[in-house]
Structure formats: C-alpha cells, structure tokens
Amino acid sequence: MPRPASEQSVSVPEGDASISADAEPPIGLSIDVVHEAGEWPQLDALIVTTNSAAQALADELRIRGRSACVALSSDAEIAKLNAAYRGKKAPTNVLSFPALAFGKEEASFLGDIGLAFETVAREAREQGVLLIDHLQHLVVHGLLHLLGYDHQTQAEAEAMEALEVRILAKLGVADPYAGSDLTLS
Known about the structure:
Strand content: 15-25%
Mean pLDDT: 80
Number of strands: 4
Structural class: alpha/beta
Oligomer: single chain
CATH superfamily: Metalloproteases ("zincins"), catalytic domain
Low-confidence stretches: 1-25
C-alpha cells in the first residue's frame, strides 16, 4: 500500500553481494524514517542524520543485515503512546518498541522508535546543543534499547552511556553526559 504524501521515507540499501572484496562492506542497519507528526525542520537532512547515527552504531557493534523504523513525531502523539504503553501521561523524548522479546531468535527487523519534536527541540535548546546532535544521540539511545540495552540500574546506565558516548564521538557529537546529570527516560 502506498504511503501518504505526508510521510518522508528513506531506506539505506543493503549493498550488492556481487561487488568485489575490495569494496565497502554492506550496510549493517537499514533505517526507515517516517515523518508522522511535528514541525521537524529540514526532513532530508534529518533522514541523513538518522541514518548516519544508525550506521555508526552498526559499525561499533558490528551489526549487519538489520533494520528499524524511526518515526519523527510530536509531543501529542508520543504522549499517547507513553500513556498507553508506559502508563505515563506526558510526552518523552524517545520511545523504543522492540520487535521481539529479548532472548528469542534474532530477527532482521529490530523495532520502532518514536521521537517527540517539541521535547527533543526543547531539550536541545536547554542543553545548548544543535538539534541534529541531540537527534543523533536519541537515535543511538533508542536503537540501543531495541538491541536490549537498558538503564534501569546504575551499572546498566553506565555501560549504555559509555557505548553512546563512543558512538557519538565517531559522529563528532560531544559527550551528552559530560558535566551534567542528564538522564534519558
């Protein structure tokens, strides 16, 4: 079924198995970016940014042949999902919905991530960072949740944050946790 014109979508190709051994390896993590709601600026640039963050994560974790969907949404839409699935009647910056329960067989589709524009933009302003840098951080964070990482305990949080910082550094994004008590819910 064709998508409505309001949706912006791009998928990074998996690569061609017939290319020479000297060629670049196939893309490890294909991301479908959908503009669901919200006043997200420069959608084409955000799609490229989202895919760059996903590829940096795939390179760091040596992921191949996997995919996920990132929905660029609004506070109103994310608040509905947050209430329905987490019992919290407020928007949040990022929600992750894994496709399979962890410990089951490995699936090629990891799941869905939703981002709330107004919250993401406000946080970027408050932290004094570019929207695009904060978006990359939240994409990496959300993808890690799809892969089973969490931050419910101090040890989990430290491990997940260290991995985020390493991936973001490859993208030229400063450590979002440096000198702050930033936490992601």
